[in-house]
Amino acid sequence: MNDTVLKFENVHKSFGPAHIIRDVDLDVHRGERHAVIGPNGAGKSTLFHLCSGQFAPSSGRILLDGEQISGLRPAEVNRRGLARSFQITNIFPGITVHENLRLAVMRKHGLQFSFWRFAGRLSAVNAEVEDLLDRLRLTARAGTLANQLSYSEQRSLEIGMTLASDPKLILLDEPMAGMSQEETDYTADLIREITRGRTLLIVEHDMSVVFALADRISVLVYGEIIATGTPEEIRANAQVKEAYLGEEVAA
Ligand SMILES: Nc1ncnc2c1ncn2[C@@H]1O[C@H](COP(=O)(O)OP(=O)(O)OP(=O)(O)O)[C@@H](O)[C@H]1O
């Protein structure tokens, strides 16, 4: 059994003369929460775009569960089990929370075009939706239109929609962006609970969230991963302190 869900092998990405990702090797282990941190412009978004198929590498290989995904289109990468959570763009705003989750769960079961033929499986779908509502702390909001939710509730729903497909790997792209401290604390706690046992790759600027949530952290500086390790190892790494974290980590 392969213990690595996502593997970068010597991945390089350039735009014309600009070398943005440089010979990156990265292993995301099954069941771990892995964070990528680095200064502005280090290449974190580019790395995520490479994972999800928005960009193809200039050279090197990317493997999902042992299968090469580099060069595949985003929809195909998604079909193979990689779900990327964007701010709140996966939500249908004009339908309820329950209906949103039901669509996401039905999509996983392949029910969208053959609803009646699979009527017998609907009770299983409903049970999954109820379970998701509970874990997302949205049971009381089940009948609310998605566009009526608070921002952090919308983010919870969005992450829930991503989880509903039961992906092999979840990419979370700055989930705390634009949140107050209170919303950040709430969402970090929720992400910790609902991603237990899942494999997660996260980019996040809030260092307190990263260090509390991640099992391992990779530090990207000028397109190169200069260190990978547990939060304690990263905190203690002299090269990381010098290149990036400095006082933030010492704090
Ligand atoms: N399509 C593109 N064409 C040319 N240059 C690009 C392209 N996309 C990104 N870049 C450049 O790649 C570098 C890394 O950008 P990227 O957005 O990946 O960094 P980041 O670490 O996510 O930054 P931030 O933390 O500010 O979001 C930047 O200098 C950016 O200008």
Automatic annotation (TrEMBL):
Q: Which GO terms describe its molecular function?
A: ATP binding; ATP hydrolysis activity
Keyword Signal belongs to the record? no
Q: Which PANTHER family match?
A: ABC TRANSPORTER ATP-BINDING PROTEIN, CONSERVED COMPONENT OF ABC TRANSPORTER FOR NATURAL AMINO ACIDS-RELATED
ABC transporter domain span: 6-247
Annotated protein name in UniProt: Amino acid/amide ABC transporter ATP-binding protein 1, HAAT family
Pfam families per the UniProt record, alphabetical: ABC_tran, BCA_ABC_TP_C
A Gene Ontology term for the protein's cellular component: plasma membrane
Report keywords, A-Z.
ATP-binding, Nucleotide-binding, Transport
Coiled-coil positions are none
| PROSITE patterns to which the protein is assigned, alphabetical | ABC_TRANSPORTER_2 (PS50893)
